[in-house]
TrEMBL record:
Residues 527-585, 723-783, 950-1008 form the Tudor domain. One of its GO terms (cellular component) is P granule. The keyword Repeat applies. It is found in: Cytoplasm. GO terms for biological process: P granule organization; piRNA processing; spermatogenesis. Residues 4-87 form the HTH OST-type domain. Its main location: cytoplasm. Residues 146-168 have a biased composition (Low complexity). This is Tudor domain-containing protein 7. The keyword Repeat applies. It comes from Brassicogethes aeneus. Pfam families: OST-HTH, TUDOR.
Length: 1091
């Protein structure tokens, strides 16, 4: 039943999407019946009304306007050909993240990679690269350090590349340029670690500036592999001396910055409006007091606050009423200076326990912030100005001063002096913002530094907020690194985690400690408010993960997993405060893109084939030649190799992705929108699916055509023979439109000079002289295009017989630029799909093209109208002709009794006592039989091949009424092709239809005379000048759809239609014991009077 419901919903969406706009429920039901041959089976799914079923489908929308209800489908990415909505949607339930632990297997020597490189023509695609919208949405920040002294690849792998540009661009990435500082005339010399000689200028893959690479120089902790350069000033070397190593541009820049900083004095800033001006420097103490907890939490808290000057400690407990009177519990509130702590959400039956819990909670938070290590050397101001900016640069959303102070001590084993905030406030690339409780520090460009006292327009940070350093990707000297894939979005967005550095080991150890800590203390670290841009710990699928909040609404938070690159929607209850000891390790996830697959970036989104590299151990090689230094790229290009086999994953994925994204697929029973490309006389039809893969192909072909016209690759042209051309694709020019297309040679002339080529994406063929035509082998032009699936799909139209002029008829009904709907009926003996095509008329009526072609072929065998009168094309005289044609058209009039005789009738339609229609009751059974046969005969017909000139007043046709039933219809007047006045000659309805709604009627349905006879009550007239609306409504309810005896008094001409007659009747209701004369009843009710 669930599968049936999915199929029904899919069919409904096909109807709605093909309509290109919303449609009424009635319209939808008619279209569904046309496509499926039955009504929408909503009752099978437990719904009493169609509206209720539609409302239960999330991707369908209902709208009521007046008396009509409209339905509209939400377009998915597939139906829009770009899939942007579905691709961006995330499920609230996410598969478990794989925690990648440190393993010696990561460091095993991988198999020598095959060093695959894309075709030369593919390189031009790098200039078309655009950042993924998702990267900007998650506000990802990362840095890439790459070596300068890398050995160039062997010459045979350098086609299309200019490696010297790499060194030129690397030289431009010195620190003075990114800080917009003028070059200094004098340089400071320094002694640096020997392992810095190969350090490269970092590549920045976001809007924030690059950071520097350095040696260890005493650095400790998890940041040791990217410790900042440290300089020892000396007077023994002239300041203007130049270093001998030309690769030390970054070091030179650092020296210039150091000199600049040394020239800055604290007197340069007036301090009147500086956020640190009101922070008086404390006298430095050689050794801060030692604090030891005694176990008495309240006393310990008061002692700690007194020792470190935090202010008064206020402790208050409250009793909370419980639902059961016998129960009571307590909560506690502790205030230390400006910091407030609560025991919530824990409950305690003893106020002392509540006080103890809350005091310990306060101590746990305050001790790391205010206790400082003993016996640390104090950093000097030049070191501070040199070291702090690179540290801040890795905290994109800012960091509290207390956290940076602790991070500095961990990193350099030195304590910052008491006035360090005032020192860094003089830096051109540091913004210091004073909050209510402390200072927030942010890195910025010198030109972006705000005026002192200005506020950043971000959400204010809380004292509990900590910041996690951004990721720094460190490539080895050979521009490679070992990694593991953690998350895949597309070929342009692959998230990895580096596995060959000390940082990864530190992260694994930290994650184990973090899991143990939050398993034991999670409840005491719940957050009450969540702010976008802040870091938290998330409990997800039984694990603990570091996340950053991206979007926050009332109850849900979109969280970015900073160590995996994934994002998902979580409840606020699943987020916890991130402790500072778990924020020291940098974010592990970095994002790269697969070089050489630029043509498949968009088509590879959410690819199942691409997901196969998830969790794979890989070797990444930086594709430096694909980096455009002028573009603000959020990811960096790589060549990715399987660590086990050495195979290029870039190369292996090209055929897999192209086949997956661009293979046209149609399935039996489903409805597919297609575009016809070629029609053959034997009933074969070729079509396109305008999918995302098809759109990508068009762009690829256009770009390749442009490149060939600008720079023809004549060196690729080779003699073509029957032997070497078998199953080979070429790029050839089509004579008709002059454009270039993919072709395949399918047949040769005996002499070998002429060949028949098949356009694999359109289905048509042509004959060329192979000696005079230019055919470029595609496998030498493009890896992607040579393996791209053929786009032309062949089907056969399901017809009883193929008309001789089938091509003209089908082309007229299905032009190449108009989409049609396709439905597979079955498969023939050669497994070729037999299909029906459906199309919408200009009047928005869905009809079957197969039926229309078959009907037109039948009409051409006869006179074309199947009516008794010959076909007459006299539309210009239709007005005059309509005056002489009765409403019943060419049908016979039913036999009438003589005057003053009884006449049994059924009233089919009533307007007022002087205007209603009766049917002879004696022929009622014949009429019912005719109606049943009419429904069966025309149930699958929705469109007519007739043109306006084929319609003549008086002709009889079949047409479908709004109730979904077919009726015999006579033409009264032809106004224009969109408006033809008709009369439902068996029931008495008048209406206006279009030409396409009139279906030629088979002769068997023309034998029964028309049944609707216009009538009026005799011997009465309206009490007032005319029949009121109340009079008409009463009469309609009294007589319509009921049987009566009548007496035929007279027959007169119809004033409106001269060729029609009106029966003057006396109606008698004999359904009860006493006969009721309707005319007399109207008089008694004062509706009518005698005349």
């Amino acid at each position: 039943m669930e599968k049936l419901q999915e199929d029904v919903i899919s069919m409904i969406r096909s109807c709605l999407i093909s309509n290109k706009s919303e449609m009424t429920l009635k319209h939808l039901e008619n279209d569904y019946r046309t496509l499926c041959g039955e009504r929408i089976p909503y009752t099978k799914f437990g719904f009493k009304r169609l509206e209720d079923f539609i409302s239960s489908v999330p991707t369908l929308y209902l709208r009521t306007a007046g008396n009509e209800t409209y339905v509209k489908a939400q377009l998915s990415e597939k139906s829009q050909h770009i899939q942007s909505m579905v691709n961006k949607q995330k499920s609230s339930k996410k598969s478990s993240l794989q925690k990648i632990r440190f393993s010696n297997a990561v460091y095993r020597q991988p198999t020598q990679p095959n060093r695959w490189r894309p075709k030369e023509v593919n390189v031009k695609w790098k200039s078309k690269f655009q950042n993924s919208p998702r990267l900007a949405a998650v506000s990802h920040n990362q840095f890439v350090n790459r070596p300068v002294n890398r050995q160039p690849p062997q010459q045979q792998y350098q086609q299309g590349y200019q490696h010297q540009n790499y060194h030129q661009s690397a030289a431009r990435q010195d620190l003075s340029q990114r800080l917009h500082l003028p070059p200094a005339d004098k340089k400071l010399t320094s002694t640096t670690s020997s392992n810095n000689g190969n350090a490269a200028p970092p590549v920045v893959t976001n809007h924030v500036h690059a950071i520097s690479t350095s040696g260890q120089n005493g650095a400790t902790g998890v940041q040791g592999n990217v410790a900042t350069l440290r300089y020892k000033r000396t007077t023994s070397v002239p300041l203007d001396s130049e270093p001998s190593n030309p690769c030390n541009s970054l070091i030179n820049a650092k020296k210039r910055i150091t000199r600049k900083m040394s020239e800055i004095t604290l007197d340069r800033d007036s301090g009147n409006s500086s956020p640190t001006s009101d922070t008086q420097p404390k006298s430095p103490s050689p050794e801060l007091p030692t604090f030891v907890r005694t176990g008495n939490s309240s006393a310990d808290l008061k002692k700690f606050a007194e020792t470190f000057g935090l202010g008064e400690v206020e402790i208050s407990s409250n009793q909370v009423a419980a639902k059961k009177k016998a129960e009571r519990f307590f909560t506690c509130k502790v205030k230390v200076g400006k910091n407030t702590y609560y025991s919530y959400p824990e409950d305690f039956r003893d106020p002392i326990e509540a006080e103890k819990y809350c005091s310990n909670k306060a101590l746990d938070d305050l001790i790391p912030k205010h206790s400082r290590r003993k016996s640390l050397l104090t950093a000097n101001h030049l070191d501070i100005l040199e070291r702090v900016p690179p540290m801040l640069e890795k905290h994109q959303h800012g960091i509290w001063a207390w956290q940076l102070e602790m991070d500095y001590a961990d990193k350099y084993n030195e304590a910052l002096p008491a006035d360090w905030l005032k020192i860094i406030d003089t830096s051109q690339c540091i913004q210091v913002e004073k909050g209510l409780e402390s200072h927030v520090l942010r890195h910025c460009k010198p030109g972006d530094v705000l005026q002192k006292g200005q506020k950043w327009s971000t959400t204010p940070m809380k004292m509990s907020d900590v910041s996690v350093p951004s990721n720094t990707v460190q490539f080895n000297d050979d521009a490679r690194l070992s990694a593991q894939v953690t998350y895949v979005v597309s070929a342009s967005e692959v998230w990895c985690r580096q596995c060959d550095n000390v940082e990864f080991q530190a992260y694994n150890e930290m994650s184990i400690r973090m899991e143990k800590f939050y398993n034991a203390h999670a409840q005491s670290h719940k957050v009450t408010e969540v702010d976008a841009g802040r870091y938290y710990v998330a409990n997800f699928d039984g694990g603990w993960y570091r996340v950053r909040a991206v979007n926050v609404d009332s109850s849900d938070v979109t969280c970015f997993f900073i160590d995996y690159g994934d994002e998902t929607l979580l409840q606020k209850d699943n987020l916890y405060q991130l402790k500072r000891e778990f924020a020291t390790c940098q974010a592990q996830a970095f994002v790269c893109r697969l070089a050489g697959l630029e043509e498949l970036y968009e088509a590879s989104a959410n690819s199942e084939k691409l997901m196969s590299i998830m969790s794979k151990q890989v070797l990444l090689e930086l594709a430096s030649d694909s980096i455009d230094e002028n573009l603000d790229e959020l990811s960096f290009p790589v060549f990715m190799y399987d660590a086990d086999t050495g195979n290029s994953l870039n190369q292996d994925l090209i055929p897999l992705l192209t086949i997956e994204s661009a293979s046209p697929v149609i399935t039996k029973g489903s409805i597919t929108e297609v575009y016809i490309t070629n029609i053959e006389s034997n009933g074969d039809v070729y079509f396109h699916l305008h999918s995302r893969g098809y759109e990508s192909l068009q762009e690829l072909l256009l770009n390749l055509e442009t490149q060939i016209l600008q720079n023809p690759p004549n060196n690729l042209i080779e003699p073509i023979t029957k032997t070497n051309s078998e199953n080979k694709l070429y790029f050839a020019q089509y004579k008709v439109d002059g454009h270039w297309y993919r072709v395949q040679i399918i047949d040769w002339a005996p002499q070998g000079n002429f060949a028949q080529i098949y356009f694999v994406d359109y289905g048509n063929t042509d004959v060329i002289n192979v000696n005079s035509e230019v055919l470029y082998p595609l496998d030498k032009l493009s890896d992607v295009l040579s393996q791209y699936p053929f786009q032309a799909v062949k089907v056969k139209m399901a017809l009883d017989a193929i008309p001789t002029d089938f091509i003209d008829m089908a082309t007229k009904l299905m032009p190449a630029d108009v989409p049609v709907l396709l439905k597979i009926i079955k498969y023939d003996e050669e497994s070729c799909p037999l299909v029906e095509f459906f199309k919408r008329s200009p009047e928005d009526i869905l009809y079957c093209v197969n039926n229309s072609i078959g009907m037109e072929a039948e009409l051409k065998k006869g006179d074309g109208n199947n009516n008794k009168s010959p076909k007459r094309k006299i539309i210009s005289f239709s007005d005059e002709l309509s005056k002489n044609v009765p409403s019943g058209g060419t049908l016979d009039r039913p036999d009438l009794p003589s005057k003053d005789s009884y006449f049994e009738v059924r009233i089919s339609f009533a307007v007022n006592p002087w205007n209603f229609f009766v049917q002879p009751l004696k022929s009622q059974e014949k009429l019912n039989t005719l109606m049943e046969n009419l429904q069966k005969r025309y149930q699958n017909v929705q469109y007519s091949p007739l043109q306006t000139e084929d319609i003549t007043p008086g002709q009889i046709f079949a047409s479908k009424h709004e109730d979904g039933c077919w009726y015999r219809t006579s033409v009264i007047k032809v106004i224009h092709k969109g408006s033809i006045s008709v009369f439902y000659c068996d029931f008495g309805y008048y209406s206006n239809l279009t030409v396409q709604q009139l279906i030629p009627l088979d002769p068997e349905f023309l034998e029964l005379p028309y049944q609707a006879l216009k009538a009026k009550l005799t011997d009465i007239k309206p009490k007032q000048n005319k029949w009121t609306m109340e009079d008409c409504e009463f009469f309609k309810q009294r007589v319509e759809k009921k049987n009566f005896y009548s007496i035929l008094r007279d027959i007169e001409k119809d004033e409106l239609y001269e060729s029609d007659i009106v029966l003057k009747l006396i109606l008698i209701d004999t359904s009860d014991v006493d006969d009721v004369y309707i005319g007399k009843e109207l008089i008694s009710r004062k509706i009518a009077v005698e005349c």
